[in-house]
């Protein structure tokens, strides 16, 4: 059996571990804490910070894996892959520190697209100091402010949602500089619908997965604070109801172009998951941000649908042989709903048990998979630790059936937990479709954007 070490700390990592063991891997895992599902799948388990390079190297030395798969962004940004390859030469699914800047530095990502002429950047400027920010905010009118570095999906603030005045925006920019998370990126506020587009990449070959829509806001109807992601859905036709073929084509071309640009810029092959967060707007597709790994929860929409052997795909990614492999997905819809502690994300309850009335295999028989995240086991009980706790992923012939099934499963859990029941529902999806229809009805620049030369567009 192929010995595989997976590094991670969330429901995404539990899902990755499941897909690897289903492919025949002898799994070991390193995580910030003992994720119950991942622990059960692993022959060896180490509790350590995923970005603690010394601890990672010690565990690699102990377990002697043939392949290493890195789940979250923190170890990639810390250079874990660089050190593993320098010391051991073991192939890794996950980019080096230099390549991971596509996520760890939003300024790097924006500059890369500009330098290599890759379409999709919104209007933006990168500021290394406060001078000039006030004037640019007033020039844009509506804007988004982002720290340069990693923020766990919670650092972006949008005018009208999180910021209600120029002064509030300036104060947030000052806070970013004072916390040493600068530079500050100021961008135009876009109007459209976001979607996640994740691709396997071995440095030469880029193989796309299915598009997914994530839900960052904590409360029903896209209200409340941003979170790490309350859930997500994908559709049985391999698209999303509000997307047109040209939107997917734009995302596909961008991911491929960015992979080439990263190789040119760094002299290294990008071997891992290249995940573009895009927005479909009336004037084309715009890039919101890049991630250097699977999304959480989006990995849980993609991997359960994978018909191909994930272990073989990971080995192909890590060794530069992805182009030799066939990648296929089931024609099913998926809906993921995350169960979170009451008060999440600002003041979540902690160290309280929850009741899970069914065994994992009983969920699976009904078409639902349950993945463990921020929980621990103690005395036979599952205990909340303060962040997203359990992810329920349902697969069905339609997204609405999958949503109903996921909702049934989530409601079986007893304890001080909440979730978003509207994810994947007909009402919320129709809201997305109607939004795009209203945008399309407005006078727009469709055709002037580099992605949409209408004379050359074939659908």
Which descriptors apply to this entry?
459 residues; alpha+beta; Rossmann fold; Dna Ligase, domain 1; D-amino Acid Aminotransferase, Chain A, domain 1; 4 domains; six-stranded antiparallel sheet; 26% strand
Structure description:
By secondary structure, the protein is of the alpha+beta class. It has four domains: 2-96, Rossmann fold; 124-188, ATP-grasp fold, A domain (Dna Ligase, domain 1), CATH 3.30.1490.20; 191-331 and 426-453, ATP-grasp fold, B domain (D-amino Acid Aminotransferase, Chain A, domain 1, 2-Layer Sandwich), CATH 3.30.470; 332-422, Glycinamide Ribonucleotide Synthetase, Chain A, domain 4, CATH 3.90.600.10. 32% of the residues lie in helices and 26% in strands. The chain contains 15 helices and 24 strands. It has helices at residues 11-22, 36-41, 53-63, 73-78, 80-87, 101-104, 106-115, 133-140, 166-178, 245-266, 299-302, 310-319, 360-365, 399-410, 426-441; strands spanning 2-7, 25-31, 44-47, 67-70, 92-93, 124-127, 143-147, 157-158, 184-188, 192-202, 206-208, 213-214, 217-219, 223-226, 231-234, 271-281, 284-291, 333-341, 353-354, 368-372, 375-378, 381-384, 390-396, 417-418. Strands 12, 15, 18, 20, 23 and 24 form a six-stranded antiparallel β-sheet that branches. The chain has a five-stranded parallel β-sheet with strand order 3-2-1-4-5, sandwiched between helices. A four-stranded antiparallel β-sheet has the order 6-9-7-8, sandwiched between helices. Residues 445-459 have low confidence and may be disordered.
